[in-house]
Inverse folding.
């Protein structure tokens, strides 16, 4: 036998599917059946692949706590509360100016409505006024933008801390809420 044919036959043996004995077959069949039933959806993979996908999704999910995304949603909601759609404006600055004008007009008409909008947006929980939010829309890099960022970071940090605390092991090592 030449060295090349020996190498080929060795590679052939390695690449051959492993055959199970009869005792291993019943346990193996049960495992395969459970995996197949758990991954009946198209494109689903092994349990390890599914677990890795879930971990990646949780780390990079759009729903994860993100200060910038939360700030943008808050700015959009502020405009909607005042009947202003951001899509109608060419720039964030022009949108912010329109929101500012609407807030000033609302202050003249009904100052109590400002407090209601702050409550609906959750600004009261953040410790931020509607004026601060409007100033942050107009100038996100200014001091009001920094103040809003800090309030959101603190608030989201508290939420993340609460979630992290709920998955910490208790005194006997069990995880749970």
């Amino acid at each position: 036998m030449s060295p090349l044919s020996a190498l080929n036959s060795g590679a052939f043996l390695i690449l051959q599917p492993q055959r199970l004995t009869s005792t291993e077959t019943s346990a193996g069949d049960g495992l395969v059946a459970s995996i197949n039933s758990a991954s009946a959806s198209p494109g689903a993979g092994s349990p390890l692949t599914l677990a890795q996908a879930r971990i990646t999704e949780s780390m990079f999910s759009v729903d994860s706590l993100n200060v910038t995304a939360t700030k943008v949603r808050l700015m959009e909601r502020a405009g909607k509360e005042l009947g202003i759609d951001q899509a109608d404006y060419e720039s964030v600055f022009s949108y912010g100016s329109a929101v500012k004008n609407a807030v000033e007009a609302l202050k003249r008409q009904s100052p109590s409505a400002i407090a209601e909008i702050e409550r609906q947006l959750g600004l009261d929980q953040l410790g931020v006024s509607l004026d601060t939010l409007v100033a942050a829309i107009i100038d996100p890099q200014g001091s009001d933008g920094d103040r809003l960022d800090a309030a959101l970071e603190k608030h989201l940090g508290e939420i993340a801390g609460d979630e992290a605390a709920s998955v910490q092991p208790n005194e006997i090592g069990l995880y749970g809420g």
The chain is about 70% helix and 0% strand.
